[in-house]
Amino acid sequence: MTISRSSLSSMSFFGMRSAKRRIWGAGCVLGALGLAGVSAAALAQNAPAPPDKVVATVNGAPIKESDLTIAEQDIGSQLQSVPEASKRDYLIRFVADLKLGAQAAEQAKLQDAPDFAQRVEYFRDKILLDDLMFKEGAKADTPEARKKLYDDTVTKLPPETELHARHILVEDEATAKQVAERAKKGEDFLALSKEFSKDPGSAADGGDLGWFTKDKMVKEFSDAAFKLEPGQISEPVKSQFGWHIIKVEEKRTKPIPQFAEVQDQIGNYLVQRAQQTMLLSLREKAKIVQLEKPPAPAQPDGSAKAPAPAQPGASATAPAPATAPK
Question: CA–CA distance from 99 to each of 53, 73, 89, 104, 171 (Å)?
Fold first, then answer.
């Protein structure tokens, strides 16, 4: 098995999820409704609406400026590959196809289907929730709130040591011992890495892993690397990826990230926390009666174990409160 810098390292400094992704329990229907689908009504709360002029017609039916705004929010991810100069034309053609399809569906009387009104009601609820979530997040994510959270948490992080190191990854101990011996005798570590390392992510760069803290690497690797001083080379170290020979280039106290570097992550956290708090508050105040009980999880012996009774005011699908950045 091979290893790359990305597989050795863990995620970003805060380890936060984007505010556009799911932010609460996967078991809850509401968990599928993130900020990515915010409606035009929510966006209009922060920006004046442009003149709602007619930009095209489809069999006489108008396509308005507001239709393009809604469509852009709906298919924003599809527009990333469209040149800026072509986006408006792309949106007009998209809405035109939408209206053509809707007209054909109406002629086929699909709006008379038994579940049509129920589906319209569902998406009405979804849009209303989108607007509410957007509003709640916008209230919480202010420049002042971002700076305060940064000052209260990031600037008070305890000092942490990090290393700049290289490694050579091989498949067996015998080869690892040979490479380690040659490196300790003074052979160029970068050249040895290019010749022997099986790590496609770093071999071409002389085994360079960049800067990392102890928790960012697998335990065996970190334990060995952090015992070394700059310039030292380790004995062969076995991990789940194979055998490593490690060379430490530099050691330092990890610098505190500047506000500008992390303010977007802090903003995502503030939005998530406000939205989760609001939903939990709504659930605690509501009377939700689930008429169908979920099946009990199967036990190793094949028997079923009854779920523990829910605490008063608690929800089985309630999300864990957002955790402050650390």
Answer: 17, 17, 15, 9, 60
The structural domains of the chain, ordered by start, are 31-140 (no CATH), 158-253 (3.10.50.40)
Residues 6+ apart with CB under 8 A from 57: 63
Task: Give long-range contacts, CB 8 A cutoff, 24+ apart: 253-257.
Answer: 253/159, 253/160, 253/161, 253/162, 254/159, 254/160, 254/161, 254/162, 254/211, 254/213, 256/154, 256/155, 256/157, 257/13, 257/154
Q: Which residues contact 116 (CB under 8 A, 6 or more apart)?
A: 110
Burial class (CB in 10 A: 0-12, 13-18, 19+), 203: buried
Residues whose CB falls within 8 Å of the CB of residue 178, separated by 6 or more in sequence, listed in order: none
Cα–Cα distance measured from residue 52 to residue 165, given in angstroms and rounded to the nearest whole number: 58
How large a percentage of the chain has pLDDT more than 90? 71
pTM over 0.70: no
